[in-house]
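Schema walkthrough. Field components (list of strings):
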Amino acid sequence: MKRFDCLKALAEFAGDALVVSSAGAMTLEWNALHPGDGNFRVRTLGLCSSIALGMALGLPQRKIIALDGDGSLLMNLNSLATIARMGPKNLTHIVFDNEVYEASGSKQTATGAGTDLVGVARAAGIKNSQWANSVEDFTRAVTSAMQGGELSFIGAKVSTERTQVPPYPIDEVENKYRFIRYVEKTEKIEIFKTNLPASYV
Amino acid sequence: MNPTEAAKTIVTGLKGAGINLIATLPDVNLADLLSEIEADRDVVHVPLCREEEGIGICAGAYLVGKKCAAIMQNGGFFNSNNAIVSTLLQYQIPLLLLIYYAGDIGDRTFSTTGAMTEPVLQALGIRYYLMRDPADAAELIGRAQVMTEDAKRPVALLMTKEVLGRRALLNSL
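Field assembly_structure (string):
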């Protein structure tokens, strides 16, 4: 199964969900398929699931999708326990497991040596955890996760194949501002506030 | 003030500063403070397994409009450094860090951790203030929140035993 094909399927029904993606080629592929200010690219390996949890807790009425990798999640396995403990119904945590640190020289991760991330997620307390074994399977799992209103974890074993896509178009700070402005606009809330100069007060 | 009164004062300060999501990891000196936070219905309390995930959770919540604080021991601050640098500082995301100062003068635990705490904060360019008197705690928290919002960088408050309503140790072994 190719990650790009799964992402292509996801792009069809992601709608206005906020999408947090882990550092690496996946983010570029996702941005090529589904560009927009509701995408947030994570640069700290491991932190994708935690940033997505923060968003899910902060905006419980909005769908949040985390696009994680095996290397990333293995660095922050404890986030699964915290996610399970907090249980946000609006969070769909997807892990593309290619069994290597793709962005770091393609060395094998622990999943390549047998660690079962769906098993770990379930044991951490995320009941709705499953593997998707084909693009159709993946589409079905994600659709039901998005409609079901339940915290869910979906693992997808993918090949290490990359698709040629353009670089990420913006830097971290611009990503932050655009993302927050997008949330302000679509949620009709004010996040950035400025005060009047002291001479007005 | 006793630990419960000090904890109530600190929580009043946090709520007065607009904080509505707090990520925490326990230290024995933080027990009363965390109990107060746990019991408060107005703030989202996120009990952590490791402090670094708390930096991510607070960053994510900030991006959708929450005002966050992370409460941890200084050892946990060290655990969080990669996330502080490559998420908070890299994206210019504010965060109020309330750090229990283990190894502070009169605290007989982790003296090495205590010795490294301020140098590491300085190396990261994180402005920090020492909290000693519970009577000043609420105001200091308000000021620190103003600073982190304006600077769009984390600001740290180092909580000592005294500000938590506890006594520093004076007896030698």
